[in-house]
Amino acid sequence: MVSLPLVLVVNPQKTPVQSLKDLIARAKAEHGKLVFATSGNGSSHHMAMELFQRQAGVKFLYVPYKGAAQALTDVLSGEAHVMFSSLGPVLPHIRSGKLIRVLAVTDTQRVQQLPDVPTLAEAGVRGHEFSLWQGLFYPAQVPKDAVTRVSAEVAEILAMPDVATRFAELGYRVVGSTPDVMSKRMLSDYSRYGKIIRDANMKAD
Q1: Does CATH place domain 2-132+184-200 in 3.40.190.10?
Q2: What SS3 state is found at 72?
Q3: How many CB atoms sit inside 10 A of residue 130's CB?
Q4: What is the pLDDT of residues 160-191, one digit of tens each?
Q5: What does the alpha-carbon distance between residue 136 and residue 139 come to, in Å, rounded to a whole number?
């Protein structure tokens, strides 16, 4: 139904970098000292961070929190330096320009709400495309024709301007794909994220 990209944000007072390139340079100079907050062990934020470290060739001090809200609170206060976040919670802070600076988007394309913010690939870190998604699931015995019909109707609803606008306000990108596309995405994610989990020896709390 929808895709939810993450944004890479820093506290501009605690981490006064202007770009992703600057952050990577500082992380390399202060190896393992910059605090990277996540919403918890095994979370999507954790996976995004592990993948970013490998792709960018840097090492952070990883601090897992008991949720995204707590992680963001400490980035805002300066207790932590950097984090990946969904767009909705940080967008007001980004627009105020005081407590949060956004450096890049994890999606394959720029987000509508922040057209001047580059993707990670555009900013120099390729291979890190990372987004969450939401879809509909049915019991296996539901007839395929029924699933196809509902999928088409949901796609029509998602294309309605007011619906698309509301999702955009929450930081989502409307997709409205087919069951086959979703199945392929699930298999791709299972393989890709499984490798991240194994390589980093990640454990869920």
Answers
A1: yes
A2: helix
A3: 24
A4: 999 998 998 888 889 888 999 999 999 999 99
A5: 11
**φ/ψ bin of 179: left (φ > 0), alpha (ψ from -120 to 50), beta (otherwise):** alpha
Tokens of 202: 């990640």
Domain locations in the chain as residue ranges: 2-132+184-200
pTM above 0.85, yes or no: yes
Alpha-carbon dihedral sign for residues 42, 181, 118, 129: positive
Find the angle CA(166)-CA(170)-CA(171) to the nearest 5 degrees: 115
Instruction: Tell me the residue ranges of DSSP E strands in 12-170.
Output: 35-38, 61-64, 82-86, 101-105, 131-134
User: Cα–Cα distance between 87 and 33 in angstroms, integer?
Assistant: 26
Q: Is 29 helix (H, G, I), strand (E, B) or coil?
A: helix
CB atoms within 10 A of CB 63: 15
Distances from the Cα of 113 to the Cα of 55, 76, 106, 117, 165, angstroms: 26, 21, 14, 9, 11
Closest by Cα among 72, 70, 69, 82 to 12: 82
175 vs 100: CA distance, rounded Å: 28
Which pair of tokens denotes residue 144? 């395929």
Is the Cβ–Cβ distance between 105 and 111 less than 8 Å? yes
> Mind listing the pLDDT tens digit for each residue in 109-126?
898 889 999 999 999 998
What is the CA angle 180-185-88, rounded to 5?
120
Q: Which of 54, 69, 11, 6 is nearest to 36 (CA)?
A: 11
* The two three-digit tokens of residue 105, written as one number: 């988007």
